[in-house]
Amino acid sequence: MKITVNGEATEVSADTLPAVLDELGYGEAKVATAVNEAFVPAAARGEVTLSPGDRLEIVAPRQGG
């Protein structure tokens, strides 16, 4: 299925948010996620199913000030 990840068209085989994060190498990483501009808390990711054309944003925390 083709989705957009951080602005880039990406082909994924998974259809749930946790499985897509695993597939993209973010499985155990502490990241923030949004699907179609809606923030998805880590505790709610298991309930999110992605569809072709969805837009996924993955943001990793950074140190600094």
UniProtKB/TrEMBL annotation:
What top-level branch of life does the organism fall under? Bacteria
Taking the record's annotation, the residue ranges forming a coiled coil are none
Annotated Gene3D superfamilies: 3.10.20.30
Q: Which CDD domains match?
A: Ubl_ThiS
Q: Output the SUPFAM superfamilies linked to this UniProt entry.
A: MoaD/ThiS
Q: Which NCBIfam families match?
A: thiS
This chain belongs to the protein called Sulfur carrier protein
Organism in which the protein naturally occurs: Tranquillimonas alkanivorans
